[in-house]
């Protein structure tokens, strides 16, 4: 007995499924690479800005020569104003000589990465989460007035993290619509492409 030939409808279903899976794979790869590049670029840019902030603090400390001047500048920040950067200056004896108001309660000195001994070095940023916020912590050492000071800087990246989540959700929505559009296209193309086969089978 001869085996029953495959029905056109089953062939069409297989083609639609294969086309949709291939389109989904390509969309996932493309959107995943886009998200990775975007996130990497954003965090590298934030790290560069954080390093520039430490260099600017070093320049201010060397210009003033007295950490009290820097401390007065930090106190200008009002308590109800959202701080993008939190700054702390520690002398060689471990005493905090300048600090952003309220920083000790939120970001104690012990959580910061260990600073190098060379004044020209900057510690790689370290992520730290507290009170529902994401901070990037970095530090360095600088000399002013013949004394070494440890500079600790924290950058609030909660807004960046929230934006990344929203961007990821947007890409998921784009992926869902892309898969839906691929399925519709696959159905249309397969239906038209297999129309002659259907007519031959009916004949």
List keywords for this structure.
203 residues, alpha+beta, five-stranded antiparallel sheet, 5 helices, 5 strands
How do the SSEs run, as a string of H and E?
HHEEHEEEHH
Overall shape: it is: rod-shaped
Residues in β-strands, percent: 15-25%
The computed structural class is alpha+beta
Written overview of the protein:
There is one protein chain. This protein is an alpha+beta fold and about 200 residues long. It has five helices and five strands; from the N terminus they run ααββαβββαα. It has helices at about 10-65, 65-75, 105, 160-195, 195-200, and strands at about 85-90, 95-100, 125-130, 135-145, 145-155. It has a five-stranded antiparallel beta sheet. A hairpin with a 5-residue loop joins β1 (about 85-90) and β2. α1 (about 10-65) packs antiparallel against α4 (about 160-195). The radius of gyration is 30 Å and the shape is rod-shaped. It starts with 7 loop residues before the first helix and ends with a helix. About 20% of the residues are buried.
């Amino acid at each position: 007995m001869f085996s029953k030939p495959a029905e056109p409808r089953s062939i069409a279903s297989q083609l639609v499924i294969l086309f949709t899976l291939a389109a989904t794979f390509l969309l996932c790869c493309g959107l995943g690479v886009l998200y990775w590049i975007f996130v990497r670029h954003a965090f590298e840019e934030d790290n560069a800005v954080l390093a520039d902030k430490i260099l600017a603090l070093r320049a201010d400390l060397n210009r003033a020569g007295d950490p009290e001047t820097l401390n007065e500048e930090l106190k200008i920040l009002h308590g109800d104003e959202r701080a993008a950067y939190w700054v702390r200056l520690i002398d060689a004896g471990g005493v905090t000589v300048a600090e952003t108001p309220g920083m000790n309660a939120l970001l104690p000195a012990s959580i910061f990465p260990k600073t190098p001994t060379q004044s020209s070095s900057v510690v790689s940023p370290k992520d730290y989460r507290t009170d529902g916020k994401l901070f990037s912590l970095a530090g360095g050492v600088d000399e002013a007035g013949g004394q070494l000071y440890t500079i600790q800087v924290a950058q609030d990246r909660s807004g960046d993290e929230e934006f990344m989540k929203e961007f990821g959700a947007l890409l998921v929505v784009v992926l869902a619509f892309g898969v839906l559009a691929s399925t519709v296209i696959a159905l249309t193309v397969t239906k038209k492409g297999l129309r002659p086969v259907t007519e031959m089978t009916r004949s």
